[in-house]
């Protein structure tokens, strides 16, 4: 072998070894290797939601657990739902008046049976908890499968129901201090999606698009019975559906909305045929261009993910959770806050 051939061979070996090393995930917990613009604010919990003043974060301690409120300036954690009997909650979101929209099952179920847990998740109902946190919630008698959407500017909500194949909207009004749901209207079904991008089974609403609330962000799962999930914007006035992610090789699930209404957060990953891959948080443009910016890198650590991202009202901070592979959908292991103005 000539010297030149030997050097080329060495370069080829070095290149492919380097590629293999680069492809190997890091070991350890990403919470122990946080960049300067991310801080951990709780060591348990999931499903964060920002208060309108950006000073507090509402979250669940676990799936079918209690609701807590974190005061960011002091680190104080306040229980919100331990003063009344319940069967746990799957979502808790601030309404514009400071009250809390809750979603959770209304009857007992076998908590150690996976099938029973899934049935309870799919058979949750909405209620409104007074912001004083000293009264039981008022039931709205509305079935909700997975999470509801809450307007940040008015007392308007949307929710997924049926077999997670229908979405309705309505308004919350207070009569003598008691919340009621009025103007309930079915606005979208799975069958309304064009056949070329129809979800196989499930759809889910996430947010009203500010500032006018005449659009909803929606996730369509398993497009045409594939591992592809896409982010959509649904126009409540015209009925138009726009695929804003446009990535057949990726899983995208819509999460928190930016206050300017131009971007949303998504949980995203190349699916590689896996219907439920480990995901990270990305920022997605809502203009239909498919422009997307990665924000977290927790999946670079084997067995971890960064999900459930939501944006503060001023658009500066993102709250999200640490997740682990093999866990129940949505299960989180701590709340983190990212300063998006300090991104490298």
Can you give a write-up of this model?
The protein is mainly beta and 344 residues long. The chain contains 2 helices and 24 strands. The chain has helices at residues 3-23, 114-122, and strands at 38-40, 46-50, 56-60, 67-71, 77-79, 91-94, 100-104, 124-129, 138-144, 149-150, 156-161, 166-175, 178-189, 203-208, 215-220, 230-235, 241-243, 250-257, 263-270, 280-285, 292-294, 304-311, 317-324, 335-339.
In helices, the fraction of residues equals under 10%
Query: What is the number of E strands?
Result: 24
The average pLDDT score comes to 92
Spatial extent as radius of gyration: 21 Å
- Which ranges are low-confidence, i.e. pLDDT below 50, for 5 or more consecutive residues? 1-22
Largest sheet: 4 strands, antiparallel
Strand order of the largest sheet: 1-24-23-22
Q: What portion of the residues fall into strands of 2 or more residues?
A: 35-45%
Classify the secondary structure makeup into a structural class.
mainly beta
Q: Distance between the terminal alpha carbons, to the nearest Å?
A: 47 Å
Order of helices and strands: HEEEEEEEHEEEEEEEEEEEEEEEEE
Number of helices: 2
